[in-house]
């Protein structure tokens, strides 16, 4: 199927979703008019107000997602007023008589705006893709979330409410997104946290709650229910996908490497057992004289050193490490059997991160090591990775390209170089601001990491430009992969002040099979020339480098 036909099919599906939501809004307004008639006749009992709150809550949660931002904001405003009435926080407060007209006015304003489309295509997901369990009452919103997360390489299993949670137990979930009101309607808000905690007790993955309310109460309920976070509807799928991808990538990291240098065999054995049970890799060095040989071979991320050793102090060992540039940033934890305050102070002053007293607190030992491993890895990432995208920095991707070219020369291995650029990115910054522009950059960084292999070298070349080095991949294979990335990026919906918009990208490709005499730097230049032709040809396309006479 060619790109034009794919785009036409996409537009047709988008129109169907838009029509479905518009029809549902018509039904919602009919119900709200019926409730308004009751209110005007003086019937403002608890049941009527509950029905009004539910109707406004439904619109507030979904309208912004489907291109009705003004309606969503108006519904949220009136929903809060009704919630105050129901809680009797403002007994004398009442809705303005023209609230229904205000909603209709907001709806009309959105309808007159430029026609915005929303993606609902169900994308095939890669084998081994991260799995999200979604609990959401709104079927249209759930389908939208499924399609958008699929663009970022996630697989989403959806159930409507807490009563269907058992359907998710057969899936190995990496995380859950839960509408905090997707539980029996007669449950008082004060019991929501306890009920969710019971309902979700068998799920061991991180759980994030979602809802239309941006309030202290909603966030506290989510926290007490065991939530790792709370996100407000309408959901910014691109930002969420970036956060989740980053979180899961670092949760799946290899075990931390801890080196122990102490001459108390029983103490070392105890620490080793505790840390190995916490899934950490341990290297024991009984003789401090061998520290540099062992450290070079094991490459530890944390070193545990006894304050007193037979012929050297822990502080002296720490100083030796600090004087060696490659190991100067290693976290050090001292083990102390001596309550001597001066000695403890000296250990901390000489590059020690912490002092643990013997007998060792097992939980504290594990926590200290895990946090220092995370901190060191974060530091190392800042040296080589772009903080916004998680991709290699300019110098690192150029270094990776040179190494790949040298490897290909020795092994006669094919590889491709890709240069890609976000189309009209300056207008994104000018129209929506640099903060939104950064969200777009972060989103494409996530997409790139999700679409390509761990063996591929992926970098942010500068600004909105990216460079990819793809081993064992010729230009034709690379073109297919980059085109899939291009289509998925174009389908992602970003939001700025509840206004949805999308972006496209262009790319150029060169490989060492068509250009065997070129260096890595020359291949990069050829890919850049092909990118320039893609821009000249109308953008939103992928162009292969060609041989010129």
Helix-strand layout with pairing:
Blueprint: H1 3-40, H2 46-62, H3 69-87, H4 99-112, E1 131-135, H5 139-151, E2 155-159, E3 175-179, H6 192-199, E4 207-211, H7 216-224, E5 229-232, H8 237-251, E6 257-261, H9 265-277, E7 281-284, H10 291-298, E8 302-306, H11 314-322, E9 332-336, H12 341-349, E10 354-357, H13 362-384, H14 394-411, E11 415-422, H15 425-432, H16 434-451, E12 457-462, E13 465-471, H17 475-491, E14 494-496, E15 499-501, E16 505-511, H18 520-536, E17 542-544
Parallel strand pairs: 1-2, 1-3, 3-4, 4-5, 6-7, 6-8, 8-9, 9-10, 16-17
Antiparallel strand pairs: 11-13, 11-16, 12-13, 14-15
Helix pairs in contact: 1-2, 2-3, 3-4, 6-7, 8-16, 15-16, 16-17
Brief account:
With 549 residues, the protein is an alpha/beta fold.
Describe the protein's architecture and organization.
Pfam families: GGDEF, Hpt, Response_reg. This is diguanylate cyclase. Its EC number is 2.7.7.65. The chain has 18 helices and 17 strands. The chain is an alpha/beta fold and about 550 residues long. It starts with a helix and ends in a 5-residue tail after the last strand. The N terminus is likely disordered.
